[in-house]
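Box 3.1 A note on notation
Throughout this textbook, protein chains are presented in two layers. The first layer is the amino acid sequence; the second is a token string describing backbone geometry. Keep the layers aligned when reading.
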Amino acid sequence: MKISMNDFVASVDLGGTNLRVAAVDDGGTILDERRIPTQVERGRDDVIERMCDLILDLSSDLRKKKRRLAGVGVGVPGLVYYHRELHESPNFPGKGYFPVKAKMEKILPVEVIVDNDANVAALGEVWKGAARGFRNASLLTLGTGVGCGIVLEGKIWSGTRGTAAETGHMIVDPNGELCNCGSYGCAETYASAPWVVRRARAAADRGESAFLKKLFRENDKATAADIFRLARTGDPASRGIYQLVGWALGIVIANLTNVLDLEKYIIGGGVAKAWGAFAPFMMREVFARSYVYRAEKMPIVRSRLIDRAGLLGAAHMVWQRLGR
């Protein structure tokens, strides 16, 4: 396909609650954006069909403005093999491999590229966000889990099979808590939102904080943001939980620095909103554990694109494939 200045690509961010689709031109401008409930309970094939319908509707509307669909990029949580097959995704439940690329290309008239959501978000930050102007960077996303994407020389580094950068399961304490992955002491058991809440609830049950005990008594569905608010007011137990978040992230970033020596390290996701509660401890840990960082302190910063990093990164992944 010969690319023209009126072409656009469709990017998809598949979340547990919402499925988002955007039309993005080669300069990174979002021309249109739409969302529908993901409704994973209806099955994987149903999600794929509704995703493609949304893309086709968007394409049809933009065709009236002389715009043409040139490709599709998809970011999904979970292990993605060779930019084609999805395995073990929390937002796409089901057994075995699922051929996302092949399923979508049976419906859509263009090539589809699939990658892990943290990978494409990292690419988005390099293209238009906190790492703009740099070619080597990583993004840690702190949410339901701890995701990571690494960009080397301006492109996603996926490893041999496409499953690299699972730093949420980097071991920070071999004697730590059992993680959902089956290992112990993963970074995710310290820096993800569910584990922040879990540690806070345990502290409340042990009687370590009257504030936390009151919080869970009044709100059984308290969130990591609620614990952050208590940390800001000075509750020692809540502050200690976010100190652990910073400690774990500091170890992860120190390891990334020692191994990869990137130009920039970015922190995003919902838990990153508690930056003031964990960042000082994170910085202290990186400095203590990485002599590479001590030699030249590379920037460790917050995400700029927030919830649009994935949409822009998925789009840029396709534009790169198209030679733009």
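Residues 236-260 form the longest helix (25 residues). The radius of gyration is 20 Å.
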